[in-house]
Amino acid sequence: MFRKFDPSNDVSTSTQVKASVQRALKSQIADAHPALTEDILDALLPKKPPLVQYKVGPHLMLYCQRVESSEEDVSASDIPVFFQERDGPILPTLKLVHKYPTLQLTSVTVDKGAIPFLLGGANVMCPGLTNPGGSMPEDKEKPGLAKGDGIVIFAEGKEHAIAVGVMTMSSLDVRKKNKGIGIEIAHYLGDGLFQAEEIQ
């Protein structure tokens, strides 16, 4: 999704997010990541300065925090914090995840063998989650993760997240089938969005 992302070419229109839309975003993020409290969400998405929404291509929205410059002749810049494709889940950027490493976001861990493929932008295959070293939330009465859930992806033996993606099947199906694509990668370490410092 962001493999060749270039903010100077790929970003078109920008609009300030209305308060009602920002509340809806917070609600969706809280549903996707139940461990995040209201206070944490308020710190991540404060009312002032408001979020700025950028349109990237025909189906992608990039939500940024406005950072005012202390110098008079330098305009404000926007730092990407979340993004959403069509009606999919709202996903955090890796820089946000790295900035707040103690956030309890819904996550999985892939085994060491998957790391080079993920850093090249490949999707996560089911064995990368079920092999020793990989892990997912436990399945109880219902699957720990449902198809379409937004996920932060960590790697075995690594401290920081290496990618963000969307489940293509439930965690129950991943364990049962153990083949095919388990997570579609949306954003990974070293892609265009990760390298973009700001959007102006």
From TrEMBL:
GO molecular function term, any single one: RNA binding
Keyword Transferase: no
UniProt keyword annotations, A-Z: Cytoplasm
Keyword hit for NAD: no
Main location: cytoplasm
A cellular component annotation (GO) from this entry: cytoplasm
GO biological process: formation of translation preinitiation complex
Location in or out of the cell: Cytoplasm
Pfam families named in the record: Pre-PUA (PF17832), PUA (PF01472)
InterPro entries, sorted: MCT-1/Tma20 (IPR016437), Pre-PUA (IPR041366), PUA (IPR002478), PUA-like_sf (IPR015947), Uncharacterised_CHP00451 (IPR004521)
PANTHER family reported in the protein's UniProt record: MALIGNANT T-CELL-AMPLIFIED SEQUENCE 1 (PTHR22798:SF0), MCT-1 PROTEIN (PTHR22798)
Protein name: PUA domain-containing protein
Organism the protein comes from: Grammatophora oceanica
